[in-house]
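COMPLEX REQUEST
Ligand: glycine
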Amino acid sequence: MHQLEVPLKNNKYTILIKQELSNRFDSMLENIEHYSKIFIVTQQSIIDSVSCNALSKYPTIVIPEGEDSKSISAVESVVSQLMDLGCNRDSLLVGFGGGTVTDFTGFVASIFMRGIDHVFIPTTLLGMVDSSIGGKTGVNNNGARNVIGTFKQPKAIYIDPLFLKTLSKKDIISGFAEIIKYGLIADKKFYNTVKSNFIKLIRLENIDQIESIIYQCCKHKINFFIDDEFDYNKRMILNFGHTIGHAIESYYNYKNISHGEAVYYGMIASAFISHKHGLLIESDFNHIHDFIFNISKVGLNNLDSEKVYKYIKYDKKRMGNKNYFILLNDIGKADIVENVTSDDIKEAITFIANYEYSCN
Ligand code: GLY
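STATUS: Structure written out below.
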């Protein structure tokens, strides 16, 4: 078992990672505090694929599948259901699922009767290493992701790595994008271990090793947000590969490309800019792009660099026109850089688009 304490000043909580933890979820939820009622928010696909006593023991609210379910109308519907079921300020909400479920449940918990406690039980690799950790909540509006959101930390996070056995290979590979990201921004040794064992890891051959990887990722993530909970400084480094990655996702209208796949391309593009700025030496850049380009993922067929760039401009506007970009100084070391130009970004997008093209 791996256990981590998140030592936020006003909000200390525990992350527990253990195979077969799911057999004990009900007693663990009941022992956090004395809640009047416990409610689960999940999706039908989770109920169908995961076996766990907590899912049948507590009233369960099912939200639709897919990113589109993160909407204000879905929030209104869930709030009405919670009221009908007698949820009150002493109740506990449990977000049980992938990033969509945890983003959504965290948001509902942060606004229901001005805020009630919540716990996360992530079921995807992406959820276990990133989206359930750190207190960001959000729903979408008019195609813009997470523009309606809050910061609210859960009371606990319970991770059973055996849930990963229910996922497709594509979902596992997608989750590994965030794992590789932690290596690139914070831990060269970890990056090299993941890189050398990649094929074995994505086959989930050694769940003990996967459990340890999840633990190390959670530890890295805590280090990035513990002194910058509200994302004004160090936490922004977690965005490595995401500015271009999000733009690629928007370009494809969030269809046919997963978040992780887009982040893989975003990380190559950011490594390209890092090298162009003289921060990352050529051999490291070559290692990164050889490794990541060769990971099995959807291609960027005929990506229009200008159009992708337009989505980045939109993203920047949301950041108050500040031109922050996360670049690598080395494998395992990243910084926030302000002098990345639009030409740098367009060149990097053209690089990933053309590289992929030449591979087809
Ligand atoms: N996913 C990036 C963050 O939590 O800040």
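REMARKS: The first strand starts at residue 2 and ends at 8. Residues 130, 134, 136, 231, 235, 238 surround glycine (CB under 6 Å).
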